[in-house]
């Protein structure tokens, strides 16, 4: 394994990436939800709704939501009927926003919060029925470790779901998307969040993330089976899933 890894378009020591990512999300946390609306023109809400429906956590199932950020997936899963959601994130600042949002929604049961590194999940083997991660896997240093950990904590018959930016499959859309990502988004970040650098990193991290087929291969290598993906918005994002059988 290389001693360096990607941080956007930069190569940095593997030991430094987690702290660099943490700094990014500490910076963006206060305006994270507003920025998501501006950056995606509100479409992220549709992607997340489709993702929650794909997870389909039932009243008999516990969902472990990794890199859960400010809580959109967790809240959606509970509203759809999940028995319990464990909302985790490596960044306490993001979880603090999620906790405030949960209180605003009157969510007092069925939801737990924990600061968790997705590469080292502090849960027993075979302890949850569903594992999800939305727009978080690309920020992890060792993505394969996250996938292995997700499989480890799943019960047999449990399913892993990942929502992540991916490779655009429509060429004309790809050109427009590049302009939006590298010209418009950093400018929005500078004007609204007063932080151009963090949003430049977020755009770069998307381009460094494995494409659909590569991620499917990584999931299989981690021991997940019946791996599949579904493109949304022409491949701007994709939902990947795999089972522990």
UniProtKB/TrEMBL annotation:
<dbReference type="InterPro" id="IPR004033">
    <property type="entry name" value="UbiE/COQ5_MeTrFase"/>
</dbReference>
<comment type="function">
    <text>Methyltransferase required for the conversion of demethylmenaquinol (DMKH2) to menaquinol (MKH2) and the conversion of 2-polyprenyl-6-methoxy-1,4-benzoquinol (DDMQH2) to 2-polyprenyl-3-methyl-6-methoxy-1,4-benzoquinol (DMQH2).</text>
</comment>
<feature type="binding site">
    <location>
        <position position="70"/>
    </location>
    <ligand>
        <name>S-adenosyl-L-methionine</name>
    </ligand>
</feature>
<dbReference type="Pfam" id="PF01209">
    <property type="entry name" value="Ubie_methyltran"/>
</dbReference>
<comment type="similarity">
    <text>Belongs to the class I-like SAM-binding methyltransferase superfamily. MenG/UbiE family.</text>
</comment>
<comment type="pathway">
    <text>Cofactor biosynthesis; ubiquinone biosynthesis.</text>
</comment>
<keyword id="KW-0808">Transferase</keyword>
<feature type="binding site">
    <location>
        <position position="89"/>
    </location>
    <ligand>
        <name>S-adenosyl-L-methionine</name>
    </ligand>
</feature>
<comment type="pathway">
    <text>Quinol/quinone metabolism; menaquinone biosynthesis; menaquinol from 1,4-dihydroxy-2-naphthoate: step 2/2.</text>
</comment>
<keyword id="KW-0474">Menaquinone biosynthesis</keyword>
<dbReference type="GO" id="GO:0032259">
    <property type="term" value="P:methylation"/>
</dbReference>
<keyword id="KW-0489">Methyltransferase</keyword>
<dbReference type="GO" id="GO:0008168">
    <property type="term" value="F:methyltransferase activity"/>
</dbReference>
<protein>
    <recommendedName>
        <fullName>Ubiquinone/menaquinone biosynthesis C-methyltransferase UbiE</fullName>
        <ecNumber>2.1.1.163</ecNumber>
        <ecNumber>2.1.1.201</ecNumber>
    </recommendedName>
</protein>
<keyword id="KW-0949">S-adenosyl-L-methionine</keyword>
<keyword id="KW-0831">Ubiquinone biosynthesis</keyword>
<dbReference type="InterPro" id="IPR023576">
    <property type="entry name" value="UbiE/COQ5_MeTrFase_CS"/>
</dbReference>
<feature type="binding site">
    <location>
        <begin position="117"/>
        <end position="118"/>
    </location>
    <ligand>
        <name>S-adenosyl-L-methionine</name>
    </ligand>
</feature>
